[in-house]
Amino acid sequence: MNSFSRLIFTLLVLVGILAASGCTSQRDTSIPWSRPANWEGQVPGMGTTPGGGR
């Protein structure tokens, strides 16, 4: 291959890799694991309700 053909081939391979990798966006979804649960980040045994629901 001459240098121009090699350059075109390399560019096509790079574009193909970029197209196959795809992109994702951070958006709010209805999937429950996309955001933390209400109880995460709290001290264990210390609920948000007085008395801990006991």
SSE layout and pairing:
Layout: H1 3-21
Written description of the protein model:
With 54 residues, the protein is an all-alpha fold. The protein has one helix and no strands. The chain has one helix at residues 3-21. The radius of gyration is 25 Å and the shape is rod-shaped. The protein starts with a helix and ends in a 33-residue tail after the last helix. 0% of the residues are buried. The mean pLDDT is 75.
Helix content: 25-40%
Number of helices: 1
| Cα distance spanning the termini | 78 Å
Number of beta-strand segments: 0
- The poorly predicted ranges are none
Rounded to an integer in angstroms, the radius of gyration calculated over CA atoms is 25 Å
**What's the mean pLDDT score?**
75
* Beta content: under 5%
H/E topology pattern: H
Query: In this structure, how is the largest beta sheet organized?
Result: none
Shape: rod-shaped
Structural class comes to mainly alpha
